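Students often ask why inverse folding is considered easier than folding. One informal answer: many sequences map to the same fold, so there is more than one right answer. In these notes we will look at a single instance of the problem. The structure comes first.
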């Protein structure tokens, strides 16, 4: 329990305040859980048409491109950072290979299932 002095309209009051919990409010916890679930889904649920095409898992803005044409990548390497719903999502390589085509630019807005990169 903590004691505080509070002044209201020039009158001083002494109050005691007990901290009941240190966890986040339910609404904030729910928002954090939802945010984590969406991020995890975006990282792991990338649409791959054929073995070498990487598409956007959701609509968003290309914040960063981590590779260039000719780069060698391994499955799981981060290729692009895509901002969606004020969250950064890592778009990863589904297979080992070399970047054959890079079809987006930094700052570009992409739609769900839009082709981003071709790996050969």
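Output (designed amino acids):
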């Amino acid at each position: 329990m903590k004691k505080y002095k509070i002044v209201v309209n020039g009158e001083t009051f002494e109050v005691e305040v007990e901290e009941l919990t240190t966890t986040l409010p339910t609404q904030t916890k729910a928002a954090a859980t939802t945010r984590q679930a969406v991020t995890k889904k975006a990282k792991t649920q990338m649409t791959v048409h054929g073995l070498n095409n990487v598409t956007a898992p959701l609509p968003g803005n290309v914040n960063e491109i981590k590779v260039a044409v000719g780069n060698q990548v391994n499955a799981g390497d981060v290729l692009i950072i895509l901002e969606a719903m004020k969250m950064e999502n890592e778009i990863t390589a589904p297979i080992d290979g070399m970047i054959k085509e890079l079809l987006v630019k930094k700052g570009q807005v992409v739609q769900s299932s839009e082709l981003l990169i071709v790996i050969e």
